[in-house]
Amino acid sequence: MATVPQSPAECPNLLLSMLPEDDYRQLLPFLERVETPLHFLLFERDQPIREAYFPLVGEHSILASMQNGAAVEVGTVGYEGFSTVDLLMGSDTAIETTVCQIPGEALRMPAPRFKEFTAADTPLRRITLRYLQSYLSQVSQAAACNRLHAVEQRLAKWLLMSHDRMRQPEFSLTQEYLAAMLGVQRPTVSLAASSLQRAGLIVYSRGKVTILDRAGLEASSCECYRVVRGHFARFLGTDFRLDFH
């Protein structure tokens, strides 16, 4: 089993990497490094929350479900954050279902320990509250984006966000996930992905995406990618976009 990073400087999770050394070491006995495979269920709506997850790589998707079984993504979490913010607000029950949509790894901590370490004005509480502001701004921006921007622009935005989180040009994204992210049917996803592929920006085949032209993809995205990045820079004091050039 892979070991838990022993210092904040070694930790790929942005929030944990921002902790002072002593505070990080207090968390170490309660952190476990786990794989998060595709469709791994982290939290289920209206069910108890047993752990907090700090992604190291991969992407978690928060899904709002309807009575007919339909679901749409309302938020995403990567290495820049943690799942689930419900714990930070004092809840022991998940408001929505969270699943892993891009495989990876995470550090997880028992929910009671997370609540213990964030009960007072601790560095972990201050950092996760700043993340909460960033996360809520992402959710509100997505609501406007889904209403106002074209599918192709929104697809470019989500590909850029996934690219940032995976830290490599090739990663897995199923059509099912893309449809949930964009709130559209699979044929619409195929059309939008084909358009970006014809423009030479990506290759998308059998659930695998390869980014060919990062700058071109940014130009094709709606403004929301830059807005969300700006929110993270403002609230966390860092820009989690990586330099791929």
Task: Give a written overview of the molecule.
The chain is built from 10 helices and 8 strands. It has about 240 residues and is of the alpha+beta class. The chain folds into 2 domains: about 10-140, Jelly Rolls, CATH 2.60.120.10; about 150-220, Winged helix-like DNA-binding domain superfamily/Winged helix DNA-binding domain (Arc Repressor Mutant, subunit A, Orthogonal Bundle). Strands 1, 2, 3, 4 and 5 form a 5-stranded antiparallel beta sheet that branches. The protein has a 3-stranded antiparallel beta sheet with strand order 6-8-7. The protein is globular and about 50 Å long. The protein starts with 13 loop residues before the first helix and ends in a 9-residue tail after the last helix. The mean pLDDT is about 90.
The total beta strand count reads 8
Listing every helix as H and every strand as E from the N terminus to the C terminus, the arrangement reads HHEEEEHEHHHEHHEEHH
Number of helices: 10
| CATH topology (level 3) name of the largest domain | Jelly Rolls
Helix-and-strand structural type:
alpha+beta
The major pleated sheet works out as: 5 strands, antiparallel
As residue ranges, the low-confidence spans are none
Strand percentage: 15-25%
